[in-house]
Design a protein that fits this description.
16 helices; alpha/beta; 23 strands; six-stranded mixed beta sheet; globular; seven-stranded mixed beta sheet
C-alpha cells in the first residue's frame, strides 16, 4: 500500500494543516492516489491573511535593492534545481519532462523580468510644474493580494503572478489548484531560501469555499485568477462588487489560419505541436485549424500522418511526448465530446479513444476532427484536451470573420509567406495575442499576457509591465516651499 504524502499549507514560513479537511491528489499517469492536500477552512484563511497583513509594513519598507537580490537568488535556486521541480510537476500534473522543463523556463522569464524591479518601480518627477511647485508620482503596493492559479501550469502561473506582486512590495496569499498543489509549496520554500521574509508569501490550499473566503477577506485588496471562463466571471464579479481590484483570465478557443501560400509542412508541424502539447491542456493551445481555400485536404492529411508518430505515455519515460489529462472526469468529458462529433455532422478522422494507450491513468489519444462548424459542441466548447478540429473556409475574410465571431479571444495565429496578408490579419483580428507563423504566441516576460472578450475579465493583463500597474497604486505629490512672507488666504480654486 502506497503511503500518502500530506501536503500542508505554508503560513508565515511554517507548514500548517489547519482544519481536518483533506482532498485527494492523484498521479494522472497511473490513476493512483499519491497524496492528500489540506483544505483550508475560514479560520485558516483568516490566519493566513492576518499573517500577510502583519508582514506588509516590513516588506513594503524593504529597500528595492534588497528585494532585487532575492530575485537573483531565486533565479539561481530554480535554475540549479529545475529537474527536481519538473519531477514534482510531472508526478501531480502528468506532464512529460520536456513539457515540464518548458513551463519552468517560461516561469523563470518572469523571475528575471521582476529582478529589474528598480526600473519597474520608478516614478515620475516634474520640476517647476507651476511657479515654485514640483510634482512627483510614486508607485506603492496595494497591500495583501490573492493569487489563484490553475492546474495546467502549477509552477509557471504562480511565477507569473507572485513575482510581480512581491517585487512591487505586496504580501501574497497563493491558492494553487488542489489537483497539483506541491509545486506551489516548492516555489514558496525556494523564495524563503532566497531570503524572502516569513509571511510575505503564504500558500493556502483549498476548494471553492476557500477561494470565496480569501476573496471576501477585508484585508485582501486585489485578486488575480486564471481558470475557466464561468469561474473567472464569477470571481471577477465577487471581487469587484467589494471594491477590490481583479484580473480574471478565462478560457479560449484558439484558431490557426493557414493560407494557400503557407509552408504546409511547417503548418502541420505547428498544428501538432500547439494542439497536442501538454495534452491540449493549455489556454493557448491551438484547438481549431482554419485552412483557407483548396489546400485543406493536403493540410489535413499532413496533420493526420503526423499524429500516428506521436508517443503518448507517462512522463517517467523521457521519450514520451504527450502525457495524460488531469483527472478521470476530464478524460470522460473529452471522450464524450469526441463521441458526439460524428452525430453533429463532423468527421472524426483520428479517434483518440481508439489509440494504443497505457491501461492505467487518464490518457486520451490525439484526436483530429474535420468539417467542424460553429454550433457544434466540439467547436463551441473549450475542450481542454488533445482534440484538434478543422474548420474549412473559402477565403481570408471568411477566416477572419470566423475568429472574430467567437466569444473567446485569447490567442490566434496565421501561417503565410505574404507580408501584406500577415499585416491585414494583425490589424483586423479581434484577439489579444497574435502569432505570425508562430502557433502559440505567448509573449516573452517583458510584455504582458492576456486576451480579449470572454477570455479576460478586468482591464490589465498578467505579468510584464501591466502586472506592475495592477499590483501598485499611483500617488501624486505636489510640493511647494514658500517663504513666510508669501503666505496668504485665497479661497479660489488653485491655478497656475
Amino acid at each position: 500500500m502506497t503511503t500518502l504524502t500530506r501536503i500542508p499549507h505554508i503560513i508565515g514560513g511554517k507548514e500548517a494543516s489547519g482544519s481536518d479537511r483533506f482532498g485527494p491528489v492523484f498521479n494522472p499517469a497511473t490513476g493512483e492516489q499519491t497524496g492528500e492536500v489540506a483544505l483550508a477552512d475560514a479560520s485558516t484563511v483568516e490566519r493566513a491573511v492576518s499573517t500577510a497583513e502583519a508582514a506588509l509594513p516590513g516588506w513594503r519598507a524593504t529597500g528595492l535593492a534588497k528585494r532585487t537580490a532575492i530575485f537573483f537568488k531565486l533565479r539561481e535556486i530554480i535554475t540549479s534545481r529545475q529537474e527536481e521541480l519538473a519531477e514534482v510537476i510531472s508526478l501531480e500534473h502528468g506532464k512529460v519532462p520536456s513539457d515540464a522543463a518548458g513551463e519552468i523556463a517560461r516561469g523563470l522569464e518572469n523571475v528575471e523580468f521582476c529582478a529589474g524591479l528598480l526600473h519597474h518601480m520608478k516614478g515620475e518627477f516634474l520640476e517647476q510644474a507651476a511657479s515654485g511647485i514640483n510634482v512627483h508620482q510614486t508607485r506603492q503596493p496595494v497591500g495583501v493580494v490573492a493569487c489563484i492559479t490553475p492546474f495546467n501550469f502549477p509552477a509557471m502561473v504562480p511565477l507569473w503572478m507572485v513575482t510581480a506582486a512581491i517585487a512591487a512590495g505586496n504580501t501574497v496569499i497563493l491558492k494553487p489548484s488542489e489537483r497539483d498543489p506541491s509545486s506551489a509549496n516548492w516555489i514558496v520554500k525556494a523564495f524563503h531560501e532566497a531570503g524572502l521574509p516569513d509571511g510575505v508569501l503564504n500558500v493556502v490550499h483549498g476548494d471553492k469555499d476557500t477561494v470565496e473566503a480569501i476573496i471576501d477577506a477585508p484585508a485582501v485588496k486585489a485578486v488575480s485568477f486564471v481558470g475557466s471562463t464561468p469561474i473567472a466571471q464569477s470571481i471577477y464579479q465577487r471581487a469587484t462588487s467589494q471594491g477590490k481590484r481583479c484580473q480574471a483570465l478565462g478560457g479560449a478557443k484558439n484558431h490557426m489560419v493557414v493560407m494557400p501560400d503557407a509552408d504546409l509542412d511547417a503548418a502541420a508541424d505547428a498544428a501538432i505541436s500547439a494542439g497536442f502539447g501538454s495534452a491540449g491542456e493549455r489556454c493557448m493551445a491551438i484547438s481549431v485549424v482554419v485552412p483557407v481555400g483548396d489546400i485543406a485536404d493536403e493540410l489535413v492529411q499532413k496533420i493526420q500522418d503526423r499524429i500516428g508518430e506521436l508517443k503518448v505515455g507517462p512522463g517517467t519515460n523521457p521519450e514520451n511526448e504527450m502525457g495524460p489529462v488531469i483527472t478521470a472526469q476530464a478524460k470522460e468529458r473529452i471522450e464524450g465530446l469526441i463521441a458526439g462529433a460524428n452525430d453533429s455532422g463532423a468527421t472524426v478522422l483520428v479517434d483518440g479513444r481508439e489509440a494504443d494507450l497505457p491501461a492505467e491513468g487518464y490518457f486520451v489519444g490525439p484526436t483530429l476532427i474535420d468539417h467542424v462548424k460553429p454550433g457544434m459542441l466540439v467547436y463551441d466548447e473549450e475542450i481542454f484536451g488533445p482534440v484538434l478540429v478543422v474548420s474549412r473556409t473559402d477565403s481570408f475574410d471568411e477566416a477572419v470573420s470566423l475568429i472574430n465571431s467567437n466569444r473567446y479571444a485569447n490567442g490566434t495565429a496565421v501561417f503565410t509567406r505574404d507580408g501584406r496578408t500577415a499585416r491585414e490579419f494583425e490589424f483586423n483580428i479581434e484577439v489579444g495575442m497574435v502569432g505570425i507563423n508562430v502557433p502559440i504566441p505567448v509573449p516573452i516576460g517583458a510584455f504582458s499576457f492576456g486576451g480579449w472578450k470572454d477570455s479576460l475579465f478586468g482591464d490589465t493583463h498578467i505579468y510584464g509591465p501591466e502586472a506592475f500597474n495592477f499590483y501598485t497604486r499611483r500617488k501624486v505629490v505636489t510640493q511647494r516651499w514658500p517663504l513666510a512672507s508669501e503666505s496668504q488666504i485665497n479661497l479660489g480654486f488653485p491655478t497656475n
